[in-house]
Specification:
Elements lengths: L1 H22 L6 H23 L10 H22 L3 H7 L33 H6 L3 H16 L2 H18 L10 H29 L13 H10 L17 H28 L6 H26 L9 H20 L1 H4 L5 H50 L5 H16 L1
Helix pairs in contact: 1-2, 2-3, 3-11, 3-12, 6-8, 6-11, 7-8, 7-10, 10-12, 11-12
């Protein structure tokens, strides 16, 4: 039935596209015809994928919704591969087919400069530095970290990623002027207010979802209109809830997996800024927003597939398809950045930044070696030593009381000696 339904939909869509093509006279504009043909091909592929692709771990609001984003992942990856195999100039100019305003070098905004919270030199508005930083990226930071918390479902990992990205901005501000921010912009506005408040609200939402009673009832079985409307709204909430317990210190495998997740998250965040820089896209462009919306939808599925694979590898014998696609997309975006502007990426880090990163890597490796190798060997040695001592004590006890009469005889001999002395 599902395959028949798929063929019917594809047949209707193909007939509709052919009918529209035959009704109108084909324009002589090659660029317009190329764009229209590409869009039609993508629509046919999405229609096929939505009905035939493999279901993921999520079923709300509908499995077809998540199959759609899986197919969009494939289309986006193919687009990135195409951009990767173009020259730098052709790749930037190709974006003009999407938006004629693209393909023009844009100056990067510097968020540093005057970092005084209160500027006495400006009598009209001494707090102008704060108001200048309050742009559209402030609510974007908040909602972004709210959604990331819903994906990761762990306060510890969210805070680690948030703080680590600020350290990356400090380290790479010599490459991208956009990373140059005031200290209070880094730690007060970003980490504490925007990111911290988003993580807090996300954790509160997770607590509500974990405590919520999931008892689903058919829409037409609900007698009241209020109940029907409530049921429609709850259709956009999870069908059931799984609490993520990453437990990174429980085993070396989980520790390496969690470190890999954090690394991919940070790389995807950096790709956002570097892609804008190398492809000449302004930060407020709708393509940048669409990319973030895309990662919000596919990232949640990928995180669930990764957790299922880590938590129960016997049942989930291989990593999910969406997780592999997200990893491939992140790697391809990084390759585009490397190819389009290798000079920026090869700018050497300042010496003190290099020292800090070397020290941090040494501390992480030292803790890893102590936690999963030295500590385990020490605990195992202590346990073996304790078991040997217990075994020796039990053996000595058995030898001393082997026939059941040696202790009695010793007591009798002792009493006889006392009697003789008396």
């Amino acid at each position: 039935f599902r395959r028949a339904h798929t063929l019917t939909v594809l047949f209707i869509l193909t007939c509709a596209l052919g009918y529209v093509t035959l009704l109108e006279e084909t324009p002589q504009d090659t660029a317009y015809n190329t764009k229209r043909g590409i869009v039609a091909s993508i629509l046919v592929f999405l229609c096929f994928g939505v009905t035939q692709a493999k279901d993921g771990p999520f079923s709300r609001p509908h499995p077809a919704y998540w199959r759609f984003w899986l197919c969009v992942s494939v289309v986006y990856e193919l687009f990135l591969i195409f951009i990767l195999f173009q020259t730098v100039q052709d790749g930037r100019q190709f974006l003009k087919y999407i938006d004629p305003h693209l393909g023009v070098p844009l100056p990067e905004r510097d968020y540093g400069g005057n970092c005084l919270i209160y500027d006495p030199g400006n009598e009209t508005d001494p707090f102008h530095n704060i108001w200048d930083k309050l742009d559209g990226f402030v609510p974007a930071h908040f909602f972004g970290w709210y959604l990331k918390t819903l994906m990761i479902r762990d306060w510890w990992m969210c805070m680690i990623i948030s703080v680590m990205f600020e350290f990356l901005e400090y380290s790479l501000e010599h490459q991208l002027p956009n990373f140059s921010e005031c200290w209070w912009d880094h730690w007060i506005m970003d980490v504490i207010l925007c990111n911290g408040l988003g993580i807090y609200c996300g954790m509160k939402t997770l607590s509500w979802l974990s405590l919520k009673t999931y008892k689903w009832q058919g829409l037409w079985n609900i007698p009241t209109y209020k109940g029907k409307m409530k049921r429609i709204v709850f259709q956009f909430t999870p069908y059931s809830w799984v609490k993520f317990e990453w437990k990174p210190a429980s085993s070396l495998r989980r520790w390496l997996a969690v470190c890999g997740i954090i690394f991919v998250f940070l790389l995807a965040e950096l790709n956002t800024f570097y892609l804008k820089f190398v492809l000449w896209m302004p930060p407020e462009h709708y393509l940048v927003l669409l990319r973030l919306v895309f990662f919000v939808n596919v990232g949640g599925v990928a995180m669930r597939e990764i957790y299922d694979f880590m938590d129960d590898p016997k049942f989930h014998k291989k990593l999910g398809q969406q997780a592999w696609l997200v990893a491939a997309i992140t790697a391809t975006e990084f390759l585009i950045v490397v190819k389009y502007d290798p000079y920026t990426l090869t700018l050497s880090l300042p010496f003190y930044i290099t020292q800090c990163w070397i020290l941090g890597i040494i501390l992480v490796l030292t803790w890893t070696a102590w936690r999963f190798f030295i500590r385990d060997i020490t605990l195992r040695y202590k346990e073996i030593r304790r078991q040997k001592q217990e075994h020796k004590y039990e053996k000595d006890k058995c030898l001393s009381n082997g026939d059941g009469h040696s202790s009695i005889l010793e007591e009798q001999n002792g009493n006889k000696l006392r009697e003789r002395k008396l």
